[in-house]
Amino acid sequence: MSGDHHIDSETSQRVRDLEAALVDAGVLTGEEIDEALDRYLADRGVVTNGARLVARAWLDDEFRDRLLTDGNAACRELGLEWVGEEPVFKVVANLPDVHNVIVCTLCSCYPTGLLGPSPHWYRSVEYRARVVREPRSVLSEFGVDVPADTSIEVWDASADARYMVLPDRPAGSEDLTEDELVELITVRGLIGTALV
Amino acid sequence: METHDIRIGSHVSVTPPNWTEHSRTPGYVGDRTGAVLDDYGTHPLPSSVVSGEPVDERLFSVRFDARDLFGDGDHSVHVDLYESALEVAHER
Predict the structure, then answer these.
(1) Which of A12, A166, A186, B81 has its CA 20 to 30 A from that of A93?
(2) Structural domain of residue B23, as residue ranges?
(3) Contacts of residue A59, Cβ cutoff 8 Å, sequence gap at least 6
(4) CA distance to partner chain A, nearest, from residue B58 (Å)
């Protein structure tokens, strides 16, 4: 989205100020903050955790049912481990007549422990305020034009549950292997601001 | 409050958030009515965590029509709400 750079720089400044205050007060050291970030970023492929769940669901209808019924159990089934405390994990499926999109209006709750840090726009005030109110317009700005007869379900991750979208399998992907399918899936697809 | 009646399928209305408490109830669902679609089990109520004496409460996923929240819109919004923020709505 355009226009979020200003919000971003304000937020960045606030985070830097908070970080400095915590270090000055002796609550945290800079090294501890870096270690915490490194734990999330060490495996740059964490987003493939989500893509792996999606690709398996596309290939295996029974796994798809289990993923949509109990996301936490489906993670364990594939050996995917959450970093830190594991929340309720709910996966919501896009269908030919249903498009899902995820937000946290109160802050920026996200399945970070499974997917890694959220994209910067997900944390922007503009996205959080607008996507619950006018999702069709916001999705259109992301290049996703949802047909008028497709219903939009917005999931506000406001408490102890975290969400991920199961995108619809794209046409033309019938012959791809699981690893090739994983490569197709983007973070935006898992949030709902892209079709895949 | 008749929170013991809340179950999947219940129509519920939302108590407006008390801004002095850490309720995690988004303001835009205050006084609105929605339908319970899922029961996420019990979790420590955020305000009780902040006070240092965690109390477990049931957490529900509630679906609202955008039209009921904002006056227009053809989409739905799902919000997770603790049982103390909800009352069974007898009339729609």
Answers:
(1) B81
(2) 3-88
(3) A178, A181
(4) 11
Which residue is it, tokens 């103390």? B84
Q: What is the pLDDT of residues B62-91, one digit of tens each?
A: 999 999 999 999 999 999 999 999 999 975
CATH number (domain holding residue B63) = 2.30.30.50
The ipTM (two decimal places) reads: 0.91
Contact B78, B62 (CB under 8 A): yes
Please check whether residue A186 touches B, CB under 8 A.
no
Which CATH number, 3.40.50.1820, 3.90.330.10, 2.30.30.240, 3.40.50.620, labels domain A48-191?
Answer: 3.90.330.10
Extract the runs of DSSP E, i.e. beta strands, from B1-92.
11-14, 33-44, 56-65, 76-82, 86-88
The pTM score is 0.84
